[in-house]
């Protein structure tokens, strides 16, 4: 059977599982799903299916496995590394109809939710009990918990509270052979830990038990304007070195302030080369004393504003939260980069990024989670100008090289996806990558679950392109088996 006929037959079978109204094959409807937040990679999915239950997802996965058809899970499609990029020869399994908060168990500080539940809706459900869900990606009004789990998403407040992985207690998962299993914390190998952050390559989560965090007694927020980004970077290092653990420390440079100002009129200190947002939360007595210390450590700032209430706090955060989208006001196109460096190297790396920007004539706006050294350089270009996209890509790649050179990483929270698979060999040896592939093969020997993502040229479990021809060193030494 040819590819199209095979997909048509599969669409019929999927209709019998979920009902005809939940299977999309009309090209106009499929086009809605042709990319995630990384819009310059696009592919129209062969079939889109919108299941309601874990059992339906298991049956869909079994149907795909029987036909050897690849499939990709999708939550809200806000990912920034192309993780949910569909396959034209495959099925896109979208969880947007699985949005029930199944249980809020305040006494045990946990909630059980379906994978399509929006991040902020967990907090909305928990707030009446005095709790919230701590991981707070800037996309939290739209992104799904399933996507957060797959990407191990972070956010402004993850500096103090940890990433998604620190807030997931169990996941119900449909494995690539179509079984429904429960991964939990506990004795034995940390399979839950392997699953969180696996970018949809080890299975599809259908139910997530999350940890709830007590709402803090008090929150204090300040905005500090600095003449230069180096001074702001030094203040970040000084705050952390002083043993203060703020809930968040965010930094924006002059170009990103300009963009945010144009978009949302956030009223940040005029003429600032950089601003820092520092937020502390916790018991009032502790926050009060640490906040005073933070103000002292920001002594190089030419202006410090303290939020008097939630409205003023909202105003301070407005500029930061809108920063990615705001850059669209000052540039027709941009690449959102995501790299990590040790905090202490912030001033040096920022100076090197500035030098790269000048050398290549490519503007770079810097917005980042400064406290955990997670940079988000926004590399600006005009796609209509010949060669501009390529120059921006080059600068973007060189920024990642800088991160690796300084002992950091090619991604902090947006994941590898399709976008950074090519950069993985810059961080890992061929043996490292093969070993990671063996973990993947243990879950998904047929290589049908989100293939082509994360790893550059998968070779171990028959994924195209290119099988490994030689024997893997771990197999040769008798330390591992191929599945
Ligand atoms: C404006 C903006 C701001 C952002 N800010 C942040 C930020 O501060 N921090 C941050 O970490 N990220 C941020 N992101 C990136 C993105 O929102 C997160 O990666 C988010 O977790 C993706 O969730 P989603 O539901 O949109 O997932 P999708 O984009 O739909 O999918 C992401 C990945 O998860 C997989 N997946 C989805 N559902 C499941 C499931 N049920 N089981 C298994 N795999 C699944 C997909 O296959 C894909 O690989 C931002 C994005 C935007 C557009």
UniProtKB/TrEMBL annotation:
**UniProt xrefs under InterPro entries:** FAD-bd_oxidored_4_C, FAD-bd_PCMH, FAD-bd_PCMH-like_sf, FAD-bd_PCMH_sub2, FAD-linked_Oxase-like_C, FAD-linked_OxidoTrans_Type4, Oxid_FAD_bind_N, Vanillyl_alc_oxidase_C-sub2
* PROSITE patterns on file: FAD_PCMH (PS51387)
Tell me which UniProt keywords the record has, alphabetically. FAD, Flavoprotein, Oxidoreductase
Q: Ranges for the FAD-binding PCMH-type domain? A: 41-215
Q: Which cofactors does this protein require? A: FAD
PANTHER family in the record, alphabetically?
GLYCOLATE OXIDASE SUBUNIT GLCD
Under which name does UniProt file this protein? FAD-linked oxidase C-terminal domain-containing protein
Recorded source organism is: Actinoallomurus vinaceus
């Amino acid at each position: 059977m040819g590819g199209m006929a095979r997909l048509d037959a599969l669409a019929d079978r999927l209709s019998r599982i979920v009902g005809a109204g939940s299977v999309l094959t009309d090209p106009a409807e499929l086009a809605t799903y042709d990319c995630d937040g990384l819009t310059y990679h696009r592919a129209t999915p062969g079939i889109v299916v919108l299941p309601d239950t874990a059992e339906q997802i298991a049956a869909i996965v079994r149907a795909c496995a029987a036909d050897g058809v690849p499939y990709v899970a999708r939550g809200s499609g806000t990912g920034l590394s192309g993780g949910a990029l569909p396959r034209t020869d495959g099925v896109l399994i979208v969880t947007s109809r699985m949005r029930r908060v199944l249980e809020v168990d305040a006494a045990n500080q946990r909630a059980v939710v379906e994978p399509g539940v929006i991040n902020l809706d967990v907090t909305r459900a928990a707030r009446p009990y005095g709790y919230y869900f701590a991981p707070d990606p800037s996309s939290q009004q739209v992104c799904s918990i399933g996507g957060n789990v797959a990407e191990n998403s972070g956010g402004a407040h993850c500096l103090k509270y940890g990433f998604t992985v620190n807030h997931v207690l169990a996941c119900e998962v449909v494995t690539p052979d179509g079984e429904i299993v429960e991964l939990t914390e506990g004795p034995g190998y940390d399979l839950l830990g392997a699953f969180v952050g696996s970018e949809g390559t080890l299975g599809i989560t259908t139910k997530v038990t999350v940890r709830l965090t007590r709402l803090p007694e008090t929150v204090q927020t300040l905005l500090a304007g600095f003449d230069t980004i180096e001074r702001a970077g030094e203040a970040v290092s000084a705050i952390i070195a002083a043993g203060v653990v703020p809930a968040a420390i965010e930094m924006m440079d002059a170009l990103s302030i300009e963009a945010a100002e144009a978009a949302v009129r956030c009223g940040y200190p005029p003429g600032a080369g950089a601003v820092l947002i520092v937020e502390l939360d916790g018991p009032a007595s502790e926050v009060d004393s640490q906040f005073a210390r933070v103000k002292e450590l920001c002594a190089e700032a030419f202006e410090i504003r303290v939020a008097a209430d939630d409205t003023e706090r909202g105003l301070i955060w407005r500029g930061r939260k809108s920063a990615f989208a705001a850059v669209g006001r000052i540039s027709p196109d941009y690449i959102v980069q995501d790299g990590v460096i040790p905090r202490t190297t912030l001033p040096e790396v920022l100076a090197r990024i500035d030098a790269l920007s000048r050398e290549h004539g490519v503007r770079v706006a810097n917005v980042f989670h400064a406290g955990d050294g997670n940079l988000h350089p926004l590399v600006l270009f005009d796609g209509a100008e010949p060669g501009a996209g390529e120059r921006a890509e080059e600068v973007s790649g060189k920024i990642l090289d800088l991160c690796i050179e300084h002992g950091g990483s090619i991604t902090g929270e947006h994941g590898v996806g399709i976008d950074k698979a090519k950069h993985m060999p810059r961080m890992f040896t061929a043996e490292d990558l093969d070993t990671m592939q063996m973990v993947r093969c243990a879950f998904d020997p047929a290589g049908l679950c989100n293939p082509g993502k994360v790893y550059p040229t998968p070779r171990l479990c028959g994924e195209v392109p290119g099988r490994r021809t030689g024997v893997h060193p771990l197999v040769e030494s008798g330390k591992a088996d191929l599945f």
